[in-house]
Amino acid sequence: MIATAAFSARSWVGDAQFDPIEDALHSFTSTAMGFAFALGVLGVMLQKLRQGSKRVMFDVAAMAAATLIPICMSIWGDVDGLLQRLMFLIAYAWYVREAL
Description:
mainly alpha, 0% strand
């Protein structure tokens, strides 16, 4: 997460200059972070299922958000910022729920 924040992404402004290497690093680290989150949620969900818990719907929703929202962001580029914030809201809500 820190590496993703350290590298700047391409500007939303069409003609603004950007560093393509930083943009690629930002993209790589954010993709890695998404996979790590989804795999972590999957691990927690499998542990809950092994313990007999049936309360995994929020885990399924968090994994779906981590995988489907980035796909939607690439399709609907005009609202990708809003979708990204929705994805982070779901992820942070999942973290808070697990912490409590």
